[in-house]
Amino acid sequence: MELYPIFFATLRAAITGEPQALLQQLTLDEQAGQALYRLANKHDLAHLTAQGLELHGIALPEETAAAFRKQKMMAVFRAEQLNCELEALSEALEDAKIPFIPLKGAVLRELYPEHWMRTSCDIDVLIHERDLARATLCLTERLSYQQGSTHAYDVPLVSPTGVHIELHFRLASEHTDTPYAALLDRAFTYAAPVAGATYRHAFCDDFFYFYHIAHIAKHVVNGGCGVRPLLDLLVLRGQADRDPVAREALLREGGLSRFAALAEQLADMWFCGGEETPILEQLAHYVLSGGVYGSTKNRVAVQQSKRGGRIRYLLSRVFLPYHELKVIYPVLRRHKWLFPFMQLRRWWMRLFGRGRGFSRTVLRRSGELSREQMQETSALLAQIGL
């Protein structure tokens, strides 16, 4: 039994509430039910598959049915927890008079029929870089958040309830040299305060759509994005106040028109019976093989194709340039003279420290990739405009 069409049909049924012909009179034995659960869970969408199956009254063996019910209940709990934490965070930043913009899942949940239908693992918020220290102090003191190490464009925080918060001070890494990165750097110019607030902002429709496409593109280049962002496109397409002309203008300016068109066509192919083409088939295989966060194999294939081969890629991973190493060791921003010592420290960690497992995986994946696979990946990226 081909599971992917069933999987996509359950997602569309859950989101639209409409009966799906493929699911009418469908029966699933224990083996097929468990396989469908594993597939849906791999993409963190088992809760929506559960909803789609329930809408069509499809019976499952009790063990599999219980697993689906558990994922749905967990999704409801996660949504409530994230919403409560977002409200507390918003109140704290509003009182501190710090402009901020909730991002990604925190906004997309509002567009789904029910909040629990759009899961996410954390809360992403954008602030001005000049407000970073003040915002971090506000959240750690007022809400007792625990702060982690500053990354390239965000500061990770954890609430007392275990919710992860990413406090972004830019939407693209500072060494990302793409047309869309330049647009993302001007994000606050496309935002305005939400009703009833002074400092909580929201993006206008065209920029929010553009940002969503740019975020998918970033993940595709890093190994894959999973099914969920493509399902988001189905929801964003249904917005009553959308302006396709304004959306397309931003996509052209950011160099993402080609990729956005293909992402929309892929969503059509999966959820709306759209035409299947060779390029969409390749893109679908790439996305589905990577799971929610992409795969190391995909990531290595992309980087090898961009670097010009296995040897150049491996050398680039051994000798990181300054603009990448300072992201790992922020002390280099103030003391550039420490560069060779931080390079040595990174080698030590990769060989004997916490990073040794990942390094071994990268080396193994790099060795497994054939020239043909690298060329296929390079051709795919060129065809989709990335």
Please summarize what this structure is.
The protein has 386 residues and is α+β, with helices and mostly antiparallel strands.
Describe the structure.
The structure is a single chain. The model has no long low-confidence stretch (mean pLDDT 85). β3 and β4 (154-158) form a beta hairpin. The protein starts with a helix and ends with a helix. α13 (296-307) crosses α17 and α16 crosses α17. Helices cover 58% and strands 7% of the residues. Among the domains are: 98-202, no CATH class; 296-383, no CATH class. The strands form two sheets. A five-stranded mixed β-sheet has the order 1-2-5-4-3. A two-stranded antiparallel ribbon has the order 6-7. The protein is of the alpha+beta class and 386 residues long.
Residue share in helix: 55-70%
Which H/E pattern describes the elements?
A: HHHHEHEHEEEHEEHHHHHHHHHHH
Mean pLDDT: 85
Cα distance spanning the termini:
34 Å
Count of helical stretches: 18
The stretches of 5 or more residues where confidence is low (pLDDT under 50) are none
Rg, nearest Å = 22 Å
**Anisotropy-based shape:** globular
Strand residue content = 5-15%
> How many E strands?
7
Q: Which class of secondary structure composition applies to the elements?
A: alpha+beta
Query: Major beta sheet, specifics?
Result: 5 strands, mixed
Spatial order of strands in the largest sheet? 1-2-5-4-3
